[in-house]
Write a sequence for this structure.
């Protein structure tokens, strides 16, 4: 049985842990609201852009299409762009993202493809490095900015497009968490480059407008201008989703931790009181026994 | 007659309002958009968008970089990567 002093020390240490987790939970809750608002605000741009993309991509098809749309013909070297968070304390979020990335990598390797990684965010580095030490092409650090904005997305996209044009990879996939709720964030794998043709619905809706649209300079030129923007928006969206997911996961994890700490404190307090009582009883018995002996 | 004008950046919807006319710096020259303009799409070069709230009024200028403009039934939508002012 631990001594009274030891128990008291443990209770105090758990109490201060609880204070930390509680503070982190509240911070995450506040940040989550902001991150969600940011994700919401980014939606109109993404929607319009993919709408325009859909209508253009259906018109410009075949060999004349830009390389970003039709690919470079090969399907051998794959790049996985994995978006992880920079900070921990967010439960299983990063583990899940890494798991999804590894599953995709495994599937691609099984098909005989070459796989390399482009890591965004700090927390994915160690676990991916453990399994694929020689396949990491680059780390992109987002830890220095408080909230990753469009500049970071732009930088990543420019880097990726340059690499693609130099022929360093054939296909790029984007692995990122999609924020469903504070309890659920689904890691998702999307093809990034070549830009996949937009889903049937969007293209149909855009084409269904029917009006003859004038293009200036021309459809192909606009598409060529648009595709890099589309990639940027895609990455920007992933960064925003990551931000919301991180805060959501953190909030949930910290809520659990606070509750667990509370349980532990209760248990320790009971133990402490019991042993205090036992000590008092022993003392009393000793005194009574001593008195009787006289 | 008013033209519905929207200016959108990746981060947010900057403007969504009814205006008289907007002059957009297109890649092949500036063009003005009034209500009832034919469907049209153009990339834009870095420059100033001039928003005329009312006929004959003085324009409000917005600096934009990188993007494109789309004129459809719903009005004019400018998607810009960066907006200043």
């Amino acid at each position: 049985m631990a001594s009274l002093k030891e128990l008291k020390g443990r209770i105090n240490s758990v109490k201060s842990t609880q204070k930390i987790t509680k503070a982190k939970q509240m911070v995450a809750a506040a940040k989550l609201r902001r991150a969600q608002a940011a994700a919401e605000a980014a939606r109109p741009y993404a929607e319009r852009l993919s709408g325009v993309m859909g209508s253009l991509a259906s018109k410009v098809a075949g060999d004349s299409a830009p390389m970003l749309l039709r690919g470079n013909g090969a399907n051998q070297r794959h790049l996985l762009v994995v978006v992880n968070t920079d900070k921990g304390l967010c439960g299983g979020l990063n583990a899940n993202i890494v798991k999804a990335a590894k599953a995709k990598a495994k599937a691609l390797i099984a098909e005989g493809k070459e796989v390399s990684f482009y890591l965004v965010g700090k927390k994915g580095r160690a676990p991916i490095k453990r399994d694929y030490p020689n396949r990491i092409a680059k780390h992109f650090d987002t830890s220095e900015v408080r909230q990753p904005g469009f500049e970071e997305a732009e930088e990543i996209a420019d880097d990726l497009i340059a690499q693609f044009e130099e022929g360093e990879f054939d296909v790029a996939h984007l692995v990122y968490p999609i924020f469903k709720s504070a309890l659920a964030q689904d890691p998702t794998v999307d093809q990034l480059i070549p830009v996949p043709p937009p889903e049937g619905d969007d293209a149909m809706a855009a084409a269904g407008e029917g009006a003859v649209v004038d293009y200036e300079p021309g459809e192909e030129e606009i598409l060529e201008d648009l595709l890099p923007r589309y990639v940027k928006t895609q990455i920007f969206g992933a960064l925003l989703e990551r931000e919301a997911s991180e805060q959501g996961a953190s909030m949930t994890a910290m809520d659990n931790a606070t509750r667990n700490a509370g349980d532990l404190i209760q248990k320790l307090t009971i133990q402490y009181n019991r042993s205090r009582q036992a000590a008092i009883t022993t003392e009393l018995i000793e005194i009574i026994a001593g008195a009787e002996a006289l | 007659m008013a033209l519905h004008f929207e200016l959108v950046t990746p981060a947010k919807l900057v403007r969504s309002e009814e205006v008289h006319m907007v002059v957009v710096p297109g890649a092949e020259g500036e063009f003005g958009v009034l209500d009832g303009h034919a469907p049209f799409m153009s990339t834009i070069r870095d420059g100033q968008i001039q928003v005329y709230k009312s006929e004959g009024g003085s324009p409000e200028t917005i600096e934009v970089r990188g993007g494109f403009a789309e004129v459809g039934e719903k009005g004019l939508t400018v998607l810009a990567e960066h907006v200043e002012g």
The first strand of chain B starts at residue 3 and ends at 8. Chain B touches chain A at residues 6, 8-13, 26-28, 38-43, 66-68, 70, 72-73, 77, 79, 81 (CB under 8 Å). The beta strands of chain B are 3-8, 13-19, 21-26, 29-33, 40-44, 47-52, 60-72, 75-84.
